UniProtKB/TrEMBL annotation:
The keyword Oxidoreductase applies. Keywords: Oxidoreductase. Gene3D superfamilies: Aldehyde Dehydrogenase, Chain A, domain 1, Aldehyde Dehydrogenase, Chain A, domain 2. It comes from Nitrospirillum iridis. The keyword Repressor does not apply. InterPro entries: Ald_DH/histidinol_DH, Ald_DH_C, Ald_DH_N, Aldehyde_DH_dom. This is Acyl-CoA reductase-like NAD-dependent aldehyde dehydrogenase. Residues 2-63 form the Aldehyde dehydrogenase domain. GO terms for molecular function: oxidoreductase activity, acting on the aldehyde or oxo group of donors, NAD or NADP as acceptor. It holds the Pfam family Aldedh.
């Protein structure tokens, strides 16, 4: 789920956003960005789409040692 906060006081808006139980919180109608991860929260879903968090699901860590 997503949430939206509108406020003239940006510090207060961010404080409210941190307390919301939502996968994405929009503050003051920002433009959408693929650099921001998107996904559910609690029972709404696990995992993320977009940004580095969305890519991590498809990656596997490998150690390479060479001389």
């Amino acid at each position: 789920m997503a949430a939206y906060v509108q406020s003239r006081d940006i510090d207060h808006a961010h404080a409210v956003a941190r307390r919301l139980c939502a996968g994405t919180v929009y503050v003051n109608d920002p433009a959408w960005s693929p650099a921001v991860p998107f996904g559910g929260y609690k029972q709404s879903g696990n995992g993320r789409e977009y940004a580095e968090f969305g890519l991590a699901e498809f990656l596997e860590l490998k150690g390479v040692v060479a001389l």
